[in-house]
Amino acid sequence: MGLKMNQSEEIDTARLRGELVDQLRIRGAIRTDAVERAFRAVPRHLFTPDTPAERVYAPDDAVVTKRGADGTAVSSVSAPTVVALMLEQAGVRLGDRVLEIGSGGYNAALLAELVGPDGAVTTVDIDPDVTERATRCLSAAGYDRVRVLRADGEFGAPDAAPFDVIMVTVGAWDIPAAWWEQLAEGGRLVVPLRMCGITRSVALVRDGARLASTSVQECGFVPMQGAGAVVERLLPVHGTDVFLRFDRRPTVEADRLTAALQGPRAEAWSQVTVGPSEPFSDLDLWLMATLPGFCLLTASQDAVDAGVVNPTWRVATPTATRNGSLAYRAKPRPVDQARTRFEFGAYGHGPQGEALTERLVEQIRVWDDAHRAGPGASIDVYPAGTPNEKLPQACALVLDKRHTRMVISWPSPIQKARQTPT
Q1: The domain 68-225 is classified under which CATH number: 1.10.540.10, 3.40.50.150, 3.40.50.720, 3.30.365.10?
Q2: What is the DSSP string of 303-321?
Q3: Most Cβ neighbours (<10 Å): which of 19, 57, 64, 214?
Q4: What average pLDDT score do residues 171-191 get?
Q5: β-strands 163-168, 97-101 pairing
Q6: Which residues are known to be catalytic?
Q7: Residues 6+ apart with CB under 8 A from 201
Q8: How does strand 378-383 pair with strand 397-400?
Q9: Closest CA to 44 of 71, 27, 62
Q10: What is the pLDDT of residues 256-276, one digit of tens each?
């Protein structure tokens, strides 16, 4: 595996690791001394031995460690920024018993540092190549005390339960009963949840008959395999250049949407602006909760260049669909010559394209007026079959999954004045 290094290489990786931690502190990804100490202690390069150290210690770079037959990533060592954010969400303490679902080795080593010698870390993966690699890398880095299991993460690790923390490092569509049952009362579950195609790392605390969220962070992960795998549905609406991505079977007809895209385009702008580096990921969750027939639009660069669509992002732009019509969030347009502010808008197609476009823009305004300055969405989880009257009354959206009901809600609106673009 090429794990041996000469003295100069060891000094260089130590310097890179220190610089990485400093960057993560400045960004706010690392907030606590415990997580900082863990990052400074664990040699990340030993878990990615075939990758240049400069990339290994780049804050936003994930390292793919295995690809499937079609070339898609099936296992990776996550980007340091995401790893740090999720560890902070988990709030791991000395002496905790921790289950990690999805093995890469590096995150398990960080967890071992956080729980200390009196804690325990079990990491589980369904892929034997992944568990064998994780075992080798953990041993090389000096973390033989981490228990590595080959198993379907859907079922957890019942022989080692209960756990104070369950940390999931693969994209999950649902929360299976085993995770709930194996999590101690008051324990923390951190999981990248996929909701209508949007993935967010959600920190949840077991509170009786619900899992209550404490934070929601933007993230991206390879999808879960095994019994918990749920494949997205792709609906082609312009050859192989434009698709709509649904979590469930689409209720709209592809041929009608194809015809709609070939027709006139409605357009509306919101007067809501954003700076070049200003985050707005919570807007995606708001649109998911408030738009009809929500899905994500994916387009090739050829389709964008040809003017077929002009979305915010080519891979995953929020979209509303209804009765052979669609509207999607447009690529923000500059509102000043210096290009310091950009305005949100929407484009629509089809018989109801104009109405959907206006509705999308109006929801952008509602988010800006009432929720942009607030704490963001809450995503609480209840067992499947929980009656509506036992769910929060102010919820914006309920997603019924195989094992659970996910409730997405926002706190009371925070009213603010909107600035008109100049």
Answers
A1: 3.40.50.150
A2: HHHTTS--BS-SS-EEEEE
A3: 57
A4: 97
A5: parallel
A6: 78
A7: 82, 85, 86, 89, 190, 191, 192, 193, 216, 217, 218, 219
A8: unpaired
A9: 62
A10: 999 999 999 999 999 999 999
